[in-house]
């Protein structure tokens, strides 16, 4: 029994080191703080002054022809493509889960705790997600929409945000 335990330790230690290194975020370009509320998301661009907003689901009776029912929001998260993005996720009331399947991102937002992850978008477009935690009666009505745009357009958007 000793020999298999030693073999498992030789396998486990390098794997744990790799897991730690994969989770470490090296010099993110932008940090986005996400706060889950019942039943909407709040976003804060931590690297810029006074850029924060709430994102509510668009009600079915207010949808345009090019919107997705139960997936579109009134304020999309705008992020630059080809940039390392850090997401800080927390919650104000109950446990939420900030999930974007197309990006491979799922982070739990827990009240009193700040969780972080990172991702890299290499193409422009819209990425849809939802709260994937059963956080109450309307948890399925907490959509997430990220719009990935070129960096020069993102800079113009940031400059014009407060105007």
Automatic annotation (TrEMBL):
* Gene Ontology MF terms in the entry: copper ion binding; cytochrome-c oxidase activity
> Which E.C. number(s) belong to this protein?
7.1.1.9
Tell me which species this is from: Teleopsis quinqueguttata
Membrane topology reported for the UniProt record: Multi-pass membrane protein
Q: Does the keyword Signal apply?
A: yes
The residues forming the signal peptide are 1-18
Record-given protein name: Cytochrome c oxidase subunit 2
Family to which the UniProt record says this protein belongs: Belongs to the cytochrome c oxidase subunit 2 family.
- Start and end of every Cytochrome oxidase subunit II transmembrane region profile domain? 1-26
Q: Which cofactor does it need?
A: Cu cation
